[in-house]
Design goal:
mainly alpha, 57% helix
Length: 167
């Protein structure tokens, strides 16, 4: 029995889904509609959620590798071939891309006449497309595991970090 049917039996108004609207139109499917403003909010919130997810990955995954140092190694070392955190990083990074792509779509939809906002939306979508490819073909992506090689030589694998620390 549906919520609406149960409500009619009890003579009380049925609870409505906050995403549901009473109007009809092309966005209506199976009795549930989503207006443009609500869709736009959801798409833009996807950017916040994907960014929080990526930040959490950058905090959590290094904690699982005791030898990893944020000072001596770059974040890309966590997903490098041979890294003990590679499988975990790839598994956690895969859910990041779809909401970020939805955010790009939301940015593009809100751009209207703003050229720079349209460019930003398209760049986010292109980045997301390449990121999907990377996750899908992660086992074929051959980055050397510089951390192990650098550790044997007693140096940092982070070229930029080395240059900054030299000054």
């Amino acid at each position: 029995m549906s919520v609406a049917s149960a409500a009619k039996l009890e003579n009380r108004p049925a609870r409505r889904n906050p995403l549901s609207r009473q109007h009809t139109g092309p966005a209506e499917t199976r009795g549930m509609t989503l207006d443009r403003e609500t869709l736009q909010e959801i798409l833009l919130w996807c950017g916040v959620l994907s960014s929080l997810w990526f930040a959490a990955i950058n905090v959590f995954v290094p904690l699982t590798w005791p030898e990893y140092s944020v000072v001596d190694l770059t974040v890309s070392e966590l997903s490098a071939i041979g890294a003990p955190t590679r499988a975990l990083w790839v598994a956690l990074a895969m859910p990041y891309t779809p909401p970020f792509a939805l955010f790009g779509w939301g940015v593009l939809r809100s751009a209207s006449d703003n050229r720079w906002l349209r460019i930003t939306g398209w760049l986010i979508l292109v980045y997301s497309a390449f990121n999907c490819y990377w996750c899908h073909h992660a086992s074929d992506f051959r980055l050397p595991h510089r951390a192990r090689r650098a550790k044997r030589r007693g140096e940092s694998s982070d070229t930029v970090g080395r240059a900054l620390r030299a000054h």
